[in-house]
TrEMBL record:
GO terms for molecular function: metal ion binding; potassium:chloride symporter activity. K(+) binds at T108, T109, G218, T315, N432, L433. Low-affinity potassium transport system. Interacts with Trk system potassium uptake protein TrkA. This is Trk system potassium uptake protein. Keywords: Cell inner membrane, Cell membrane, Ion transport, Membrane, Metal-binding, Potassium, Potassium transport, Transmembrane, Transmembrane helix, Transport. It comes from SAR86 cluster bacterium. GO terms for cellular component: plasma membrane. The lineage of its organism: Bacteria, Pseudomonadati, Pseudomonadota, Gammaproteobacteria, SAR86 cluster.
Length: 480
């Protein structure tokens, strides 16, 4: 294990992350706000620390193997989350709340402990949005280039779609090619989203701020009422479109934009399955709303149902109302949809649609084998045959996911939360969703300090898709 290379990269990460303090610093001058010293000193401190680490560990060759990859991917979120908490602390949040807010932002979860967003300085509001945008950008590279190389992501489905996504045993320079292409897509979506928000009626500040979190699949807003603050069907439509685009695989985006295959969205089996689940949940929810007469008119029911279903299932977490007050089982139905989450190699959270699709195919195959014991059957997603080893990894992931979920649920119940609040809090944080039910429907201020630490661990676990972090706790990893 090359610790010198790891610390060298850590220095680079801290140096680059320190640049995130510059836009909010400039905003303090534009709006004549206080707090510019906080961003200025935070920038100087992290830039100096990162530069010192980089210079002291610099060497000509920086070979990185699989073990280094696991540490680096974990380090990205853990270290940057701690670094990102500095401005929150000096703006008045406690240490625990500052770390929680930063972890939630960098993991694009969207859970918050802050009340009164409308009264906060625009500089700190923009900083919150930037945290999510940076987290989403890092996640794309992790999901498309790094995780397949480590054998734990969904890249097995798209081996030939992207440069660098070949499942190599070493992190190669081809990842740089992937990064450049993916960042172009990511930045392009952000600019387009901001432009459409602006045209739809948002202010320039709100359009930029919300585009950062929408494209990142984060859910942070500059208002306590989230997207509902604007009360605009046009703004909600723009938000829906970009939440869906962010939940789609960036390998599919790459194939459509750079590979000359614009119809890839319609042919991709995972994306079709993902959309079919959303449509099914919309139909069930709308039927219940109509039967229970939840809304004054059918148009309001359709509008709210579509928005919240897309927002929750994609794990974006934007809201226009308190969906936890929906009738019957509907709040839990949306939460179950978030357990599936977005597509592989996207900025969304959850188990991922490709894993659910593989499990369904595998279960169906086992049923057929029970009926026809001698039949030779294979699992497929579209035209792709799923290797038995991949199916085995998926079921292994799901087993660990269930065990981790139950463990975290017991821990949260031990902090005094009700079952509804604890269940939804763990589900929302482990799936990087944000809003939950009960006491955590709008914010997490009622969660104890220990509970927030547990949920921070859940957010990082979910963002790293569990295996990446858990492997570091095994003695076998450190004996490599």
């Amino acid at each position: 294990m090359n610790y010198k290379s790891i610390f060298n990269l850590l220095g680079i990460l801290l140096g680059l992350f320190s640049l995130s303090f510059i836009p909010p610093l400039l905003l303090t001058f534009v709006y004549s706000e206080s707090g510019r010293e906080i961003f200025l000193y935070s920038f100087i401190f992290l830039f100096f620390l990162g530069g010192t680490l980089w210079v002291s560990t610099r060497q000509k060759n920086l070979p990185l193997n699989i073990s280094d990859g696991f540490i680096i991917t974990t380090m990205f979120w853990v270290v940057l989350a701690c670094a990102g908490s500095i401005p929150f602390y000096f703006f008045g949040l406690s240490i625990g709340d500052s770390i929680f807010e930063s972890v939630s932002g960098i993991t694009t979860t969207g859970a918050t402990t802050i009340i009164g967003l409308d009264t906060l300085p625009k500089s700190i509001l923009l900083y919150r949005q930037l945290l999510q945008w940076i987290g989403g950008m890092g996640l794309i590279i992790l999901a498309v280039a790094v995780m397949p190389a480590l054998g734990i992501g969904g890249g097995q489905l798209y081996k030939m779609e992207l440069p660098g996504s070949h499942g190599n045993q070493k992190l190669t320079p081809k990842i740089t090619d992937s990064a450049k292409a993916l960042w172009k897509i990511y930045v392009g979506l952000t600019v387009l989203c901001a432009t459409l928000y602006l045209i739809s009626g948002m202010s320039l500040f709100d359009s930029i701020a919300h585009s950062l979190s929408t494209v990142a699949g984060g859910g942070f807003s500059t208002h306590d009422d989230s997207i509902g603050f604007f009360d605009s069907g046009l703004i909600e439509t723009v938000c829906i479109v970009f939440m869906l685009l962010s939940a789609a695989s960036f390998a599919v985006h790459y194939a459509a934009i750079f590979g000359g295959k614009p119809l890839k969205y319609f042919y991709d089996s995972e994306f079709r399955f993902f959309l079919s689940v959303i449509i099914l949940i919309i139909m069930i929810s709308l039927l219940v709303h109509i039967i229970s007469n939840s809304y004054a008119d059918i148009f309001s029911a359709i509008k709210s149902t579509i928005f919240h279903t897309v927002s929750i299932v994609t794990t974006s977490g934007f809201t226009t109302e308190n969906f936890s007050l929906w009738p019957g089982f509907l709040p839990y139905l949306l939460l179950v949809g978030a357990f599936m989450g977005a597509c592989s190699q996207s900025v969304g959270g959850g188990i991922k649609a490709w894993r659910v699709l593989i499990m369904i195919n595998q279960a169906y195959k086992e049923i057929l084998k029970t009926i026809h014991p001698n039949a030779v059957l294979t699992s497929k997603i579209g035209s792709k045959v799923i290797d038995a080893k991949i199916a085995e990894k998926v079921w292994g992931f799901f087993s660990i996911y269930v065990f981790i979920f139950m463990f975290l649920l017991m821990a949260m119940l031990g902090t005094g939360l009700s079952f509804e609040s604890a269940f939804s809090a763990v589900g929302a944080c482990l799936n990087n969703l944000g809003p939950g039910l009960g006491d955590v429907a709008s914010n997490y201020t009622n969660v104890s300090g220990i509970g927030k630490i547990i949920l921070c661990f859940a957010m990082i676990l979910g963002r790293l898709e569990i295996f990446t972090l858990l492997v570091l706790f095994t003695p076998a990893f450190w004996r490599r």
